[in-house]
Design a protein that fits this description.
single chain, mainly alpha, five-stranded mixed sheet, 15 helices
Length: about 375
């Protein structure tokens, strides 16, 4: 995708990109590190248990290869001895096999951790494409693998040559030792040489691990467009978010409009602002603002209020103060108690006059609003 868009992958992979790659089984792995751990652990076991394993091997050969004339000519006895020999041999190398099994499980976890992915083991016909195979062979990765192979060959050759020169005299003396002593001594020498040869591969592992980390990070790097697309995917596109926001506002507006007929009074600007107040005389709470709007919204509130016969009172300073200081379905601030009390007193007088067919009272001319609430002019 980056090549098609012409953009370079210059951005570090995001956490989502890393998690998606992990789900696909794309984690950091170093075969050289795995090989080094397996060999060094095997060499350590052989070095520590070599003498004991040699002694057990001699005892096994004495017990299983010493047969009487009758046993040799018995058709069933050799098979029995063979089965016993196989069982004893398995027990002899069991510690080594167990250590190798543990190393084979733990070594890959050192870099990428434990991961299981069906996608990584699913058939992929692209891997069988000979053209792409040749491309991978002559790519940078192929050259790196060639370099590592040459490095391993040179290391093993140099170390083996040095070990041969160092232990050649001691190896020659094995022929002069008794058989049992020579076998045990030989096991010690083999274990030591195996350990030193395995230890030399730490150089290859030290080169391969940083390279694998770098290559894995390079593969997962992203272009700026991929970063933007991922953000849109995770957070939602601006168009969808805008549409959802408009729907939410419309729903909130509809709920607010249903509260207008239940209000006690609508305080207006008189044309730009409209605020609906509701008060429960039997409750201990202050009056609440149940609807508010400006311009077209204010006109709709006034229209619904007129249809529901809710009183309207023009008080520009108070309308603006209530609009900016109070949220929907919240009680009015304490500083506006006196001003709103004047409005409610007028509303109750108006309702009483209409019920008893009295002359309607005059609306309050000057409603004092504290200076701190005179904003939004």
């Amino acid at each position: 995708m980056a090549e098609e868009s012409g953009q370079e992958k210059t951005e570090e992979p995001s956490s989502k990109r890393l998690e998606d790659a992990r789900k696909k089984g794309q984690v950091v792995r170093s075969r050289e590190l795995n090989t080094f751990v397996l060999l060094i652990l095997s060499a350590f076991i052989v070095q520590k248990l070599g003498a004991q394993m040699g002694q057990d091997l001699l005892e096994m050969m004495r017990s299983q290869f010493h047969l009487s004339r009758e046993a040799i000519f018995d058709p069933h006895t050799p098979l029995i001895h063979f089965k016993r020999l196989m069982f004893d041999g398995a027990l002899l190398i069991a510690p080594l096999l167990l250590a190798l099994l543990i190393a084979a499980i733990i070594a890959p976890l050192a870099l990428g951790g434990w991961v299981f992915s069906w996608q990584s083991i699913a058939p992929n016909l692209e891997k069988l494409d000979p053209v792409k195979g040749l491309a991978r062979l002559f790519a940078v990765r192929g050259l790196v693998e060639l370099f590592k192979a040459l490095l391993k060959f040179l290391l093993i050759f140099v170390v083996a040559l040095g070990l041969f020169k160092h232990f050649s005299h001691e190896l020659m003396k094995l022929s002069a030792e008794p058989l049992e002593q020579a076998a045990l001594h030989g096991f010690d020498l083999v274990g030591l040489c195996f350990l030193l040869l395995s230890a030399s591969l730490v150089v290859v592992a030290a080169v391969d691990v940083p390279y694998q980390l770098w290559e894995h990070n390079k593969k997962l790097k992203m272009t700026l467009q991929e970063i933007k697309d991922e953000m849109k995917e995770s957070e939602g596109s601006p168009e969808v978010k805008g549409r959802l926001r408009r729907m939410q506002m419309e729903m909130a507006k509809n709920r607010m409009m249903t509260e207008v007929p239940k209000a006690d009074v609508i305080v207006t600007n008189p044309s730009h602002y409209a605020v609906a107040l509701k008060y429960e005389p039997n409750s201990a709470s202050a009056p609440k603002l149940v609807a508010k709007g400006v311009d077209l919204m204010a006109a709709q509130i006034r229209s619904i209020a007129i249809g529901a016969k809710v009183p309207l009172l023009a008080s520009p300073p108070l309308a603006r103060a209530l609009y900016y200081s109070t949220d929907l379905n919240k009680e009015i601030p304490q500083g506006l108690y006196l001003a709103v009390a004047q409005v409610l007193a007028y509303v109750y007088q108006l309702k009483a006059a209409r019920q008893n067919h009295w002359a309607e009272p005059m609306p309050p001319r000057e409603i004092k609003v504290p200076e701190e609430f005179k904003q939004g002019r």
